[in-house]
Specification:
Helix content is about 35%, strand content about 10%. The chain has helices spanning about 10-20, 60-65, 65-70, 95-115, 130-140, 175-180, 215-225, 230-240, 240-255, 285-295, 320-340; strands spanning about 30-35, 75-80, 120-125, 145-150, 200-205, 230, 260-265, 300-310. The two termini are about 30 Å apart.
């Protein structure tokens, strides 16, 4: 199962870590939720010249499909949509880099406020660049750690492509930026020492292309990091309960009791979810996604989640919006049910 099979975790040590962290866990039943709307397409390249990618419309579409009620959010905090620019911005070779930093700081403020108010932050975008703001808010609150659920590892950074010939797209480099690889503009944050997440504290679940012949060309550095990896082929083979447990054992071993989850909806197989920026196969189905997220959330080890990359422009009938909303609601209900059974 990726490089997880090359890590030997002591069951005894994991049990002790789980026991010692029990008091700092937050029961999914005991924390209320705040929905933060982050309508951004900043991290994506335009698919056609002059057209802003459609993920910025996702928060409104999911809200209209009943998201607030499905996840039981008490309040909704809408952030203003940032302006997308097609050309390079001053001082950066990242597309919309300056605007992404500004928007990330705004997301971070909203997430920090939610956590300080003992609310679980559900940040709905938008593209994957919103992860940076979510992690920034978490770090300001004293939390650390990341479970990155995504059909792609998003570990591109300047050393892996020619920055002179093209602008970088943050939606393909968010995990690299979060772990400190890339321009200082998006790797150094006020009040945070070091990267937003240490590589040892990051878990990537769902990469589907690791068996491709050109994978090493773009992501070879990833496999040589201490980031824990569960590629989707292994997740499907081992089953969702075992995959979730493997991630939680790693979190316990690292004493990650107040962490962040990132959910890129392209982890779903394109057969069931084509309305994303980069659909592909293999992937999860909606029931598997709900179970994975629900089992992880039931641990009480997370303070928030970013949900990204749904594109309503590829879903004119909003069929997939309703499926996403139901899946997220099912995940939170499962988390509560597991936690209730445990207690």
């Amino acid at each position: 199962m990726g490089n997880l099979s090359r890590r030997a975790f002591s069951l005894g040590a994991a049990f002790l870590a789980l026991a010692s962290s029990a008091l700092s866990r937050v029961s999914p039943k005991g924390i209320r939720r705040r929905l933060i709307l982050a309508p951004s397409s900043l991290g994506l390249r335009p698919e056609t010249e002059g057209h802003v990618p459609g993920t910025r419309r996702a928060p409104a579409a999911l809200l209209a499909a009943g998201l607030q009620a499905q996840i039981g959010a008490e309040t909704v905090v809408p952030l203003p949509e940032p302006k997308y620019q097609f050309g390079a911005q001053p001082g950066t070779r990242i597309r919309n880099g300056n605007t992404i930093r500004s928007f990330s700081l705004s997301i971070g403020d909203a997430v920090y406020a939610a956590i300080e108010d003992r609310r679980f932050a559900v940040v709905v975008g938008g593209d994957c660049s919103i992860l940076l703001g979510g992690l920034y808010g978490l770090r300001r609150s004293g939390g650390r750690g990341l479970v990155h659920i995504d059909g792609h590892s998003d570990f591109v950074y300047p050393a892996t492509y020619d920055t002179k010939t093209r602008l970088g797209a943050v939606a393909g480099m968010d995990l690299a930026l979060a772990t400190g690889r890339g321009e200082a503009l998006l790797t150094e944050w006020p009040g945070v020492e070091g990267p937003l997440v240490r590589e040892e504290d990051a878990i990537q679940i769902g990469e589907r292309n690791s068996l491709d012949p050109d994978y090493d060309k773009y992501y070879g550095d990833l496999v040589r990091t201490p980031i824990t990896r569960l590629v989707v082929q292994d997740v499907l083979k081992m089953g969702i309960p075992a995959a979730a447990n493997a991630a939680l054992v790693r979190m316990a071993a690292r004493n990650l009791n107040a962490s962040w989850m990132h959910l890129d909806l392209d982890v779903l197989d394109q057969v069931v979810m084509p309305a994303v920026d980069s659909p592909g196969s293999p992937g999860l189905d909606f029931a598997q996604l709900s179970e994975l997220v629900g089992r992880l959330l039931s641990s009480g080890r997370f303070r928030g989640v970013t949900v990204a990359i749904y594109d309503p422009e590829k879903d004119p009938g909003r069929r997939y919006a309703h499926a996403i909303v139901k899946a997220l609601g099912d995940a939170f209900r499962l988390a509560q049910a597991i936690d209730g059974h445990r207690t």
